Amino acid sequence: MADKIPGFDTLAIHAGAAPDPATGARITPIYQTTAYVFEDVKHAADLFALRAFGNIYTRIMNPTQAVLEAKTAALEGGTAALAVASGHAAQVLVFHTMMQPGDEFVAVRQLYGGSINQFSHSFKSFGWHVVWADAEDMNSIEKALSPKTKAIFIESIANPGGRVTDIAAVAKIARKAGVPLIVDNTLATPYLCKPIEHGANIVVHSLTKFMGGHGNSMGGIIVDAGNFDWSKSGRYPLLSEPNESYHGLKLHETFGGIAFAIAARVLGLRDLGPAIAPLNAFLILTGMETLGLRMQRHCDNTLKVAEWLKQQPQVTWVNYAGLKDDKHYALHQRYCPKGAGAVLTFGLKGGYDAGVKVVSSAKLLSHLANIGDTRSLIIHPASTTHSQLSAEQLRQAGAGPDVVRLSVGIEDVSDIIADLAQAIA
Ligand SMILES: *Cc1c(COP(=O)(O)O)cnc(C)c1O
After folding, report:
1. How far, in Å, from the CA of 381 to the mean position of ligand 1?
2. pLDDT at residue number 2
3. Is pTM beyond 0.90 here?
């Protein structure tokens, strides 16, 4: 019994957490403090030199955040994690840890609109260049590789197209090229899919979405799979070379399978600064305790909504990998058999204007730019989240003018369908 590996729902509640040693508080406290008293001068010096692990200053770590990190690492099957202020901050720190100015990375076009913007525009000022490929075409990923490529970036289930990526096939390409595979697992969560089991080296999340699950706090996290050799090629100097700001310490040599998570913390987070607030870490932790329950209900509701939408004469198509005739159904069965997530898109006969009309007519469904809340959310990407993209980028991202996106909540599904019925009518 003692040796039984706990199941997902047990880990979601217990992993990383224990009664507070100082007070006996059963729930992880919100450690609302900026700094921590050192035991003595030697302890302080050891902490600063990374000879010992411990709390120094909340920009770098905090005990509430540490529980969130341990829990997420356990759920994803990683060795360590680093929680930060948002999903986008997590992405910046991941690339900061592996890229040098002038380097390239390959990303598939089927991504969250914010990631497309971040990669195409803001990353340029760091000298990091994205080369786009197509998640449906493994040849396009191989062709996008060059000697300057440092990583490949995909989403497990892609937002907003509702497609499932063949993670193992991309992992194979990454392994052959000697570069890490980064998987954004925001839409799937580890309840539906564990990318590390399929060959991912780094997993990132926007905790803002299903992981926190209640639409109340921003957060992001980086999970280190501990399965990439950062020293082998000499192409990841932050990890393999002596670090001047730590007396010549070589991070990968010293920390092995948790080196990436450590480097992202003690270099990226320390110097760029997007720390997660302790209150947000607490709220996300509370949400994560019910991740399994919520995700299953989200997926069950979404399948029913998708099946209903398909019957409606005003609806031209429905994109949801959970539908048996969807072109991603086989990948859904392989990578996330418990459900295809809670985000789907559908097309309306009336195009752009009909999309605007439906989102304006919804009552129970909230019209807003988010996903992964307990409540159902609706948006017309072409006029909102994806409005900065060109017509061609819109099409490639699965966000054309007639597309409406739903993030199906955990309300009674009959009420969700009733609201959609009146909005579409
Ligand atoms: C929201 C989102 C992000 C960005 O996360 P923030 O917490 O909003 O910064 C990244 N990837 C995906 C798939 C998302 O849905």
Report:
1. 15
2. 60
3. yes
